[in-house]
């Protein structure tokens, strides 16, 4: 299991039976591979599908059946199709249980930036703001630092904010944080990661939950 | 016999053409595009190329029209779908949610050849729905406190902040469906439905590109997603 699969597997453990789940692009997409066999969730795709199934074999690709990342998918028994306005009414209306999203930055209050990069033309937002605003629970999955080694968890966002709504849970390759009124709370460290390393690589201040634990090896 | 009698009663002869058949909404892509003048505001269905009316777009690319204002989630891909109109500089302004998937749009925008108005995808789809439903807009919590909500009216309702979004309407809507009957009742295919049903309600002239046209009665009333009253013209995919 590579590091991104590790993050995805950890996120999959948060899903509960009968959750309606929307998976973003990148690490979130991998979460589908790690959902425990005794947990049945229904994957929602904002382009108009409830009940997304696995990726098809190349010979079974249907050009009219893609997910929100425009990748070919299948549907499971019990699935349904709907138009975009209905799909976003489901999201805004609080009918999606969990969204798992990628992120560029997270601030000390758990608010995120995941749609635009400063200094570049802002020409795409897609469903990022809708999902963050409307989903009952939002989990972000991300590498803890950028390719340059900079912390993605910062005191204040330098990238444009996606929503004033804070996320609920942050899962990185190093640690897991919950977000409360008073900010970020470290609840778990990944195997082999010391508290010192997590502190050193996290620019934002965070609380250490009383019962924080060292993560166990997460297996699929 | 009884069935024949009932259908005669339900469809009085005056709505039939000279040969006793209802006047068809079926036209060619070329005829469809001839109605569209430079400077028109056009809604175009599709999520990327999925569910986009590619034959109508191709006909538009063959035409001389320019200065178009396009309302569509994306602007195709480089040289594909609406991307062809971008490459040929036929688009003056685009309103949508995600244009970064076509680098030529970014280029045109930076060269100041094209204006762009960005909306969250849910706000955009609801604005089109509102346009077709006769509403004057709506308040949404999405985008409050972000760059997108700058210059938009903010209002607090029951302790929660919302921004006002105006409805979207257009001169033309070009939509893609899987099947139409002769009246223009439409059904779609899988995730190719996306923005098409709303766009079919929100323009002065609505043209549906379809894979197949069937006789009235061959699509069950329970299955019809877009009732025919919204549809002005039908073209067949690839049909000229």
Automatic annotation (TrEMBL), chain A:
The keyword Transferase applies. InterPro entries: 3-oxoacid_CoA-transf_B, CoA_trans_fam_I, CoA_transf_AS, NagB/RpiA_transferase-like. Keywords: Transferase. It comes from the Bacteria. The keyword 4Fe-4S does not apply. Pfam families: CoA_trans (PF01144). Belongs to the 3-oxoacid CoA-transferase subunit B family. This is 3-oxoacid CoA-transferase subunit B. It comes from Cytobacillus citreus. The lineage of its organism: Bacteria, Bacillati, Bacillota, Bacilli, Bacillales.
């Amino acid at each position: 299991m590579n590091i991104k699969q590790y993050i995805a597997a950890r996120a999959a453990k948060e899903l509960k039976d009968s959750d309606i789940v929307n998976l973003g692009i990148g690490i979130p997409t991998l979460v589908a591979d790690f959902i425990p066999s005794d947990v049945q969730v229904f994957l929602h795709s904002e382009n108009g599908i409830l009940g997304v199934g696995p990726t098809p074999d190349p010979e079974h690709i249907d050009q009219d059946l893609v997910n929100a990342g425009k990748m070919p998918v299948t549907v499971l028994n019990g699935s349904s199709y709907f138009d975009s306005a209905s799909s976003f009414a489901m999201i805004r209306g609080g009918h999606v249980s969990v969204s798992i999203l990628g992120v560029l930055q997270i601030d000390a209050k758990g608010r995120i930036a995941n749609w635009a990069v400063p200094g570049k033309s802002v020409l795409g937002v897609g469903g990022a703001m809708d999902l963050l605003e409307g989903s009952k629970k939002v989990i972000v999955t991300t590498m803890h630092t950028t390719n340059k080694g900079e912390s993605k968890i910062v005191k204040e966002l330098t990238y444009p904010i996606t929503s004033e709504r804070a996320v609920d849970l942050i899962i990185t390759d190093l640690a897991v944080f919950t977000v409360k009124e008073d900010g970020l709370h470290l609840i778990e460290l990944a195997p082999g990661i010391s508290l010192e390393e997590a502190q050193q690589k996290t620019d934002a201040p965070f609380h250490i939950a009383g019962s924080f634990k060292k993560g166990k090896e997460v297996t699929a | 016999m009884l069935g024949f009698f009932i259908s005669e009663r339900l469809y009085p002869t005056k709505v039939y053409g000279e040969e006793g058949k209802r006047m068809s909404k079926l036209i060619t892509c070329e005829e469809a595009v001839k109605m569209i003048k430079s400077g028109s505001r056009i809604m175009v269905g599709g999520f990327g190329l999925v569910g986009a009316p590619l034959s109508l777009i191709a006909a538009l690319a063959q035409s001389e029209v320019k200065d178009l204002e396009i309302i569509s989630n994306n602007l195709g891909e480089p040289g594909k779908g609406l991307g062809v109109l971008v490459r040929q500089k036929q688009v003056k302004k685009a309103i949508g949610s995600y244009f970064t998937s076509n680098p030529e749009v970014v280029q045109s925008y930076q060269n100041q050849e094209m204006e762009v108005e960005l909306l969250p995808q849910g706000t955009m789809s609801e604005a089109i729905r509102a346009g077709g439903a006769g509403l004057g807009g709506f308040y949404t919590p999405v985008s409050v406190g972000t760059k997108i909500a700058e210059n938009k009216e903010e209002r607090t309702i029951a302790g929660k902040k919302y921004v006002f979004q105006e409805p979207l309407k257009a001169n033309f809507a070009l939509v893609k469906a899987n099947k139409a009957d002769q009246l223009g009742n439409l059904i779609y295919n899988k995730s190719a439905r996306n923005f098409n049903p709303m766009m079919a309600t929100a323009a002065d002239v609505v043209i549906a590109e379809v894979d197949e046209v069937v006789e009235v009665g061959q699509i069950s009333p329970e299955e019809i997603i877009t009732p025919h009253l919204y549809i002005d013209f039908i073209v067949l995919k690839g049909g000229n």
